Amino acid sequence: MCKHILNAQVQIRAPCCKSWFDCAECHKEKSDHDLTKTSEMVFACKKCKKVFRKDMSNFDESDEYCPGCDNHYYIEAKTPESSGKLVIGFEGTMDMIVDPRMKTKGDGSTII
Predict the structure, then answer these.
(1) Are 103 and 111 in contact (CB under 8 A)?
(2) How far apart are CA 60 and CA 56, in angstroms?
(3) What pLDDT score was predicted for residue 44?
């Protein structure tokens, strides 16, 4: 399981070492070399386990879905920093929305 992208829908096969990783950061942490860049990526869907190739130089909206199970794998990544927070952008800025029903202790921690 990836600790960088919490909702990763596919694994990627690194073209340099032919190993499978959940994201480029996982490759960086576990390998002793840089990730080789390529225009053709090999993916493995985590839902149906089908392995498929995508030409990233000619990527369009229909390529955002697994050809085996139609799982939408090209989605906005949830990271540990954004997990559990509702983030809404206003005119180019990102503001955190806080539930007014949430109470805080004197030390700043939240009481649910």
Answers:
(1) yes
(2) 9
(3) 93
